[in-house]
Amino acid sequence: MTFIKKTLTTSIALAAASTFAVSAAQAQMSDDEVRIGYLADMSGTYRDLAGPGGLEAMQMAIEDFGGSVNGAPIEVLSADDRNSADVGANTVRAWIDRDNVDMIGGLVASSVSIAVTKVVEENDGLAIVSGSAASSITNEHCTPNHIHYVYDTYPLANGTAKAVVEQGGDTWFMLTADYAFGHALEGDVTKVVEENGGEIVGTIRHPFPTNDFSSYILQAQGSGAKIVGLANAGSDTVNAITTASQFGLTQSGQQLAGLLIFLNDVHALGLQATQNLLLTTGWYWDMDDQAREWSDRYFDRVGARPTMVQAGIYSSTMHYLKAVDAAGTDDPEVVRAQMAEEPINDFFARNGQIREDGRMIHDMYLAQVKTPEESTGEWDLYEILSTIPAEEAYRPLSESQCDLVQN
Amino acid sequence: MTMIFGVPLAVFMGQITLGLVNGAFYALLSLGLAVIFGLLKIINFAHGAQYMLGAFAALLGLEYLGINYWLALLLVPLVVGAFGMVLERYLLRRIAHLDHLYGLLLTFGLALILEGTLVNFFGVSGARYPTPEVFQGGLNLGFMFLPTYRAWVLVAALAMCLFTWFMIERTRLGAYLRAGTENSQLMQAFGVNVPLLITLTYGFGVALAAFAGVLAAPLYPVSPTMGSSLLIVVFAVVVIGGMGSILGAIITGLSMGIIEGLTKVYYPEASNTVIFLVMILVLLLRPVGLFGKEA
Amino acid sequence: MADSQSLSQTPSEAFSKTSAVLERQRRAKIRRNLFYLALVVVGLVAPFVAYPVFLMKVLCFALFASAFNLLLGYAGLLSFGHAAFLATGGYITGYLLASYPGLTPELGIIAGTLVATVVGVVFGVLSIRRQGIYFAMVTLALAQLVYFVYIQAPFTGGEDGLHGVPRGELFGFINLSNSLAMYYFVFAIFIFGFAVIQRTVHSPYGQVMKAIRENEPRAVSLGYNTDAYKLVAFVLSAALAGLAGSTKTVVFQLASLTDAHWHMSGEVILMTLLGGVGTLLGPITGAGIVVSLQHVLGQSPLGNWVSVILGIIFVVCVLSFRSGIIGELARMYNKNFK
User: Alpha helices of A28-66 — where are they, by DSSP H?
Assistant: First the structure.
C-alpha cells in the first residue's frame, strides 16, 4: 500500500515536473510539502516541560524560517501521546504511512520516544527527540533515523555529581526511584561520586510513584550524609524536595542534589523549597542576551518562560529546516547526514554537534537555584555557576553500546 | 541505643508518628466513603476528585480571594459539599433505583471529568500552598523533628473523625441516618424526608473529602491527579476494614498508615504495595473485613 | 405462564405450536449465522479499505472488551481490574519473544495467555469472596498491586516499557512484518475469541450464569455452586483479556505500563457500556467507537480533552443510555419489525 502510494506520488511529481518544468529542488521533495509531526504529552505529567509550549516553539521556528523550504510549504501536525507508548507508536506509524510526515519532533516520555524511534527506523523516517531523559535512546536503542537533542541523564547526573563532590559534598545519601530508570541514574551517580573521592553512605529505593517522602527524608537526615541525591524524576522529585524543606533538611546542614529537575518544577515548587539546589541544565532562558531575546518573544506568545526542552524544539526544528534547505531534499537519510555535517551554534546550543550515535552534544551548565532574597522576579530562578564543555558532558563514544558506533 | 528489630528506637517512633499522619488521611477518606455507602449504597469513585477539589479550592481561594487557611478549612468543605449535593440531587438520584454499580460508574465518569478539566487549566506539575504562619517550624519530640503542621494535621483529622462519630452515634440526625441505613422505606413511612437525608449525607461525605483536601494542601503539591492514586489505596483500606462501622473505618485507616510507615523503614521497596498485601491476607482469613458484619 | 398454557392444549395443537416455535428459532438462527457471515466478510475486506494497523488495534480492544463483557454482561460481576490481565498477557509475550528469538509468535501468545489465566485464577479466588461493589474495589486494588509489581520488575523496563518485540514468523514460515498477514492473524484470533464467548454464552453453563446474575440465592437453593460458576467465568474472561494483550504486543511490538494502569480498566468498562452490556456485538461496537474517538480527538484541537470527553460519555451512558448502542438498536428492531 505504502509502496504503491509512494510510487504513485513520485510518478505524479515526475509528470508534473516534466509538464510544468518545476524547479529541480522541488521535484526532490517527497511531495510538495514538508510535514512535521509534533508528538508530545499535551495533558499529563510532562505537559509543562514541552506540551503546548513546545508546539508554539516549533511554529515560531517555522515562521522565522519563512513558512516554506525549497518552495514547499511547511505544515505541522500535532498529537497528544498521553504518555502511552502504543498511542505514540500508532500515531507516528499513521503519520508516516498515510500523511507522509517527514519529521517527528517533540517526544517527551522516554517510553514513547523509544517506541517512536523503532517505528521511524522501520519506516525510514526521521525523528528528533527533544524532551526525553533516557540516555539509552542514543545508546542501546540508537537508530540511524533519529537524533536526541536537548539533554539526557548522563550529563545531568554526572555534571551535578562531579561538581558537588568537587565543592566538598563527599558523602551522599541516595533516594532512588525503584525501577530501571532510577537504578541507572543511581549507578551513574555512584560511579562519579566514588571516582572523585566521595562515598555513598546509604541508599533507599522507594517505589514509583511515592506521594509521601517524610519517612525517607527522616532516614536521610539520620544518615549524616552531606548530600541527599535524588535519583528520581517528575512528581517524585517534587514531592521529595517539598518534604525536605518541611523537615528543615537544608537548615540542618545537608544539601539536596536534584539529578532530573527542570525549570517548570522549580517554578512550581517555589524558591522557598528549592533554594540552593544544585542542578545541571542544557540551557537557561536568562543565561545571555541571545537566550533572553528569544525567550522574550516566546514569553509574549505563551505567557511563561521557556524550559530548555521548549527552546531545544525551536533550535532543532530550525536546524532541520536549514538542513533540508541546504540538501535540497527531505529524504531522511540525506537530511540526517546534512544535520550532522553542520555544527550548531545558536541561542540554544553552543559547540553543538550531532554524533554518529544520534546524540547532539553541546555545552551544559551547572546551575544553582536562587534564594527568595536573590530572585528579582517570578522566573528569576537560576544562577549559572559554570559551563561543562560538550565533550566532557555526554557519555563518551568509547563507552557506547550503540551499533552505529565503531569501537 | 535501644534497637527495635535492628532499627534505633528513635527512628522507630518517628516512623510511627509519620505513619499516623498518613493514616489520618486514610481514616478521613474511608470514613467519608463509609458514610456515603451507608445510606446510598454506592461507592463514591469521585471521592478522590472531591478531595483534590478541596485542595484546589483552598489554593484558588487564597490566590484570588485572599481567603486564609483557617477560613478555607471552614468554607471549602461547605462549598465542595454543596457541589456534592447538587451532583446527588441532579445526577445520582436519577439512578438510585438501579443496580448500585451504576452509581460507581457514574461517579467514575465524574472523576474523569473533574480531573481532566483541571489538568487543562492548571497542568499537572502541582502548585504549592504555603504552610500557615503559625505552623512554620517544627517540634522537637526528643526522638524526631516533627514539622508543626504535620502535628496539626494529625490533631485536626482525629478531631474531625471523632466529631463525625459523635454526630452519627450520638445525635438525633445520626439516629435517622443509622435507621435509614437499616430500612429507608420504614423511615419514609415515619414521615422522615429520606431524599433530603440522602442529599445531606452525600454532601457531608463529600465535605469530609474536601476537608482532607484542605489539610493536605500545604503538605503535598496541589495537582489535579493528587486524589486518584490515593483513592485506590483507600479502597483497599475500606475492603480491609469493611464499611460496617464508623470506628472501624477510623481504626483501620490509622493502623494501615502505621503499617505503611514501618514498611518504609524495613523494606521501602514494598511500601506502595503493603496495604494491598494486607488486603489479600484479610480476604483470605476474614472475607467480610475486620469490622464488617457477616452477610 | 407459557408452559401452563401449552399444557391445557390438545397434543396436536401443542405439537403444531411447538413446531412453529422451532421453525421460528431455526429461522432466527439462520438469520444470525448469515449476519455473522456478513461480519466476517466485512472483516476480511476491511484492510483494503481502512488502515490495517488501526483495524488491528480495534480488533484487540474489541476482544478485550468482549472478554470483559463476558464477566459483566453474563455473570453480573463488575471487574475494575481487567487491565492487569491485558498487561500480563502483553508483558509475558513481549518478554519471551524479545528474549528468545527462536520462539514463534503463536507460542509467545499462548504463553502470555496462560500466565494471564493463572493471574486470573488468583484474582478470581480472592475477589469472589466479596460481592457487588466490594468485588469492584477488590479487583481494582489487586490490579493496582500488579501495576506496582510491573513498574518495579526488571523485565518490564519500568516506565520505558518493553520495546523491540519482533513480530516474527507465524508457525515458522509466515512473515508477520507484512501488515496484511498480521491483520489476518489478528482477525483469526479475534474470531476464535469471539466464538469461545458466543459458545459459552449459549451453552447450558451460560444459562446457569444468567440465572446466577438474575437471582443468586435462587440459584444456590437449586443446588448450584455459584462461586465455582463465577470463578470459571472470571478465569475465562481473564484468559481472553490476556489473549488480547498478547496479540496487541505482537502487533505493536511493545508492551507498556499504559495497559496496566487503572485508566485502562476504566476504558474497557466504557467500551462495553457504550456498545451495550450483555450483548455480543456491543463491546465490539464500543471498542471501535472509543478507539476511533481517541484516535481522532488525539490529533484535533480537542486532544487535551480526551479524558473529559470519555468522562462525559460515561455519565451520559449511565444516566440515559444504559443499554448501549447495540441494546438500543435491538430494542428499536424488536419494536418495529416484530
Answer: 51-65
- Which residue shows C-alpha cell 470527553? C309
The CATH fold assigned to A2-151+288-362 is Rossmann fold (3.40.50)
Residue type, B138: G
For C209-238, letters b (16+ CB in 10 Å) and e give bebbbeebeebeeeebebeebbbebbbbbb
Query: Which residue in the block uniquely carries the three cell numbers 503542621?
Result: B149
B3-285, what's its fold? Answer: ABC transporter involved in vitamin B12 uptake, BtuC (1.10.3470)
Q: How far is the C-alpha of C8 from the C-alpha of C10, rounded, in Å? A: 7
CA distance C266 to C269: 5
CB–CB contact C312 B109 (8 Å)? yes
Q: What is the pTM of this model?
A: 0.86
Per-residue pLDDT tens over the stretch A29-81? 777 899 999 999 887 778 888 999 999 999 999 999 999 998 899 999 998 88
Q: Are strands A146-148 and A127-129 parallel, antiparallel or unpaired?
A: parallel
Where is average pLDDT lowest: A116-120, A181-185, A336-340, B226-230? Answer: A181-185
Across the interface, whether the CB atoms of A179 and C159 are under 8 A apart is answered yes
Q: Is B143 left (phi over 0), alpha (psi -120 to 50) or beta?
A: alpha
| Cβ atoms of B22 and B215 closer than 8 Å | no
Instruction: Report the alpha-carbon angle B96-C277-C60, nearest 5.
Output: 135
A and C: number of Cβ contacts within 8 A:
103
Sequence ranges of chain A with CATH classification 3.40.50.2300: 2-151+288-362, 154-281+364-393
CA dist., res. B166 & res. B155, Å (int): 16
Q: Which amino acid is at B118?
A: L
Shortest CA gap C147–chain A (Å): 11
Residue B248 CA to its chain's centroid (Å):
14
Other Cβ atoms closer than 10 A to C132:
16
pLDDT in single tens digits along all 295 residues of chain B: 567 777 777 778 888 999 999 999 999 999 999 989 888 888 899 999 999 999 999 999 999 999 999 999 999 999 999 999 999 999 999 998 888 889 999 999 999 999 999 988 887 767 788 889 888 888 888 777 889 999 999 999 999 999 999 988 888 888 888 888 778 788 888 888 888 989 999 999 999 999 999 999 998 888 898 898 899 999 999 999 987 788 889 999 999 999 999 999 889 989 989 999 999 999 888 888 888 775 5
Structural class in CATH, domain A154-281+364-393: alpha beta
Residue C172 in this model has a pLDDT that exceeds 90: no
Model pLDDT, residue B125: 67
- pLDDT tens readout for residues C194-203: 999 999 999 9
CB pairs < 8 Å spanning B and C: 113
DSSP A173-241: EEEEESSHHHHHHHHHHHHHHHHTT-EEEEEEEE-SS-S--HHHHHHHHHHT-SEEEEE--HHHHHHHH
Task: Compare CB distances from C314 to B108, B269, B279 and report the shortest one's residue.
Answer: B108
Residues of C in contact with A181 (CB under 8 A): 158-160
- Spatial neighbors of B45 by CB under 8 A, at least 6 apart, are B104, B105, B107, B108, B110, B111, B231
List, in sequence order, every residue forming a beta bridge with B5; answer none if it has no partner. none
Mean pLDDT taken over chain A: 88
The nearest CA of chain B is from the CA of C159 a distance in Å of 16
Instruction: Lowest mean pLDDT of A4-8, A138-142, A362-366, A385-389, name the range.
Output: A4-8
Closest residue in C to B100 (Cα–Cα):
C133
Mutate to test the interface with A, among C159, C252, C307 (most CBs of A within 10 A): C159
∠C302-C269-B288 over CA atoms, to 5°?
135
Q: Which residues partner with A72 through β-bridges?
A: A69
